[in-house]
Design brief:
The protein is α/β, with parallel strands linked by helices. Helices cover about 45% and strands about 15% of the residues. The protein has two domains: about 170 residues, Rossmann fold; about 190 residues, Dehydroquinate synthase-like - alpha domain (Dehydroquinate synthase-like, alpha domain). It contains 17 helices and eleven strands.
Length: about 375
């Protein structure tokens, strides 16, 4: 009888990074970026990759970035011209973008102690973060989110990804950024859809974790609709803090298990984005996905009709849709895709009450379809 030999190993890695809030990051007298990446004994080398939607909204931005590096050239080096890539999901749909960034890393001597600075919305941060994570097994990544959604949710975590096989986030890594810098000036350039879109992620964390935060959002709908900067900054700070606290305290930062409470509403949202050929933006799809799972929670007896009405009216009063024609029986395929993405065991977050989520390991297809019909009827009544 053969005896087995085992060498056991346990590795603990502590990851530290800061989320920094500022205004006018690339003003030459703003030292946040300089203080974040400067070195004691050598010049910090970086390449900058930027969302072309951001440069379209601010034609002076590239000039400001170059001037910033020139003003601090004794400590910072911009290794090559700024790289512009498409914003939104196209950034994640084409391998050519990853190849472009890797070629720049190779050609300009960007090593593991250099920096890739990613400026843009969540999709751009995902794609650039993936390239940074696989180059030299990890180049230091500075994320500069430019949308509400990326400043309060997608840009503050430890995930990077691109889409593959027509599936959202099929290829990706868990890799912590070196730092994240939220500049609220970028929010002033957003159109109303992008301003609104990220609010859905705040509603998400409020519904599953913090009833008082949900009430705060309800009470501040008029200010959010009026694009009040202080109100939005408060929402972003609270949502980002809750997101980061969950990652830190969940005991499963790299999602080795099947529980992903921060993906409340996302199983349907991801499929809805794909079915719409990404004409529905992520935050808009999340609003519909949360509405669907909230309706399912109501129809299965977990939340009251009044609670459901408050959720749906909160979205509607903020200008979101809670139903879209792409939300049809085909959406059920998303459950199987989500199960595969989780690793074989389906785990879905539902609501026990406002501010309190709970997990289930199966969803009844008949009730899902009934939830879709409920949302369609509710939307039609109001319209």
């Amino acid at each position: 009888m053969h005896q087995s030999k085992i060498i056991k190993q346990s590795i603990q890695v502590t990851l530290n990074f800061n989320l920094i809030f500022t205004s006018h990051l690339f003003n030459q007298n703003n030292f946040v970026l300089l203080d974040t990446i400067k070195k004691k004994s050598s010049i910090a080398k970086a390449i900058v990759v930027i969302d072309n939607g951001v440069t379209a909204a601010d034609s002076n931005l590239k000039h400001e970035i170059k001037n910033y590096f020139n003003a601090h050239n004794s400590q910072l080096e911009l290794a090559r011209d700024i790289i512009e890539i498409p914003g939104g999901e196209p950034a994640k749909n084409h391998e050519s973008i990853i190849k472009l960034i890797l070629e720049a890393v190779n050609a300009y001597g960007i090593d593991r102690h250099s920096y890739i600075i990613a400026i843009g919305g969540g999709a751009v941060l995902d794609a650039v973060g993936y390239a940074a994570a696989i180059a030299h097994r990890g180049v230091r990544l500075i994320r500069i989110p430019t949308t509400v959604l990326s400043q309060n949710d997608s840009g503050v975590g430890v995930k990077n990804s691109i889409n593959y096989f027509n599936k959202k986030n099929f290829v990706g890594t868990f890799s912590a950024p070196y730092a994240i810098i939220n500049d609220d000036e970028f929010l002033t350039t957003l159109d109303d859809r992008d301003w609104r879109s990220g609010i859905s992620e705040a509603i998400k964390v409020a519904l599953i974790k913090d009833y008082d935060f949900f009430v705060w959002i309800e009470n501040n709908i008029s200010l959010l609709n009026a694009r009040d900067k202080d109100c939005m900054n408060a929402l972003i700070y609270k949502c980002a803090d809750m997101h980061m606290q969950h990652i830190q305290n969940s005991g499963d930062a790299f999602e080795q298990g099947s529980s992903r409470p921060l993906d409340f509403g996302h199983w349907a949202a991801h499929k809805l984005e794909q079915l719409s050929n990404y004409s529905i933006r992520h935050g808009e799809a999340v609003a519909i996905g949360i509405s669907l799972d909230s309706c399912y929670s109501y129809l299965t007896g977990h939340i009251s009709r009044l609670e459901l009405k408050r959720i749906l009216n909160c979205f509607l009063n903020l200008g979101f849709d809670v139903f879209n024609e792409k939300l049809n029986p085909d959406i059920v395929v998303g459950l199987n895709e989500f199960r595969e993405h989780l690793g074989g065991k389906l785990t879905i977050m539902l609501l026990k009450k406002l501010g309190k989520g709970f997990e289930v390991n199966e969803m009844d297809e008949v009730t899902v379809l009934a939830s879709i019909q409920y949302l369609k009827k509710y939307s039609n009544i109001l319209n």
